[in-house]
Amino acid sequence: MLNSSMDATETKRRFKQRAIWFYCVNIMMALIIGLSLYFSKQAGVYQQTFIPILILFFIWIFNVDKIYRCPKCSKSPRGKEGLIYLPKTCTSCGVELR
What is the reported pTM? Predict the structure, then answer.
């Protein structure tokens, strides 16, 4: 998806879509992991399910930034606050993202 002729509004639109998808995936995964822990405890199988849930958590944490990419250079733009707040510009290519 590298496109050097992509205009600023298209870049911002694509980044906004990716950011929304990024936050939706994070919310879904937090709910899945939280509910899995809760229901496994209620069912009395907490010890048997803890390690698989922990593995799922680490897979999520180490791969979630693959969703969150700059539309121009396809690198992960990290702001000063990490991935929590959307950066105004890409730290790799300098294009304006929002």
Answer: 0.70
Tens of pLDDT along 68-94?
Answer: 788 888 887 776 666 566 778 887 888
The C-alpha atoms of residue 48 and residue 88 are separated, in whole angstroms, by 44
What's the CA gap between 89 and 23, in Å, rounded?
18
Q: What is the pLDDT of residue 1?
A: 46
Q: Locate all alpha helices (DSSP H) within 44-79, ordered by sequence.
A: 46-63
CB atoms under 10 Å from CB of 15, counted, come to: 23
Number of folded domains that form the chain: 1
Domain span at residue 76? 7-98
Distance CA 45, CA 41 (A): 6
Q: In this structure, is residue 1 part of a structural domain?
A: no
In a domain, 66, yes or no: yes
Residues 6+ apart with CB under 8 A from 57: 33
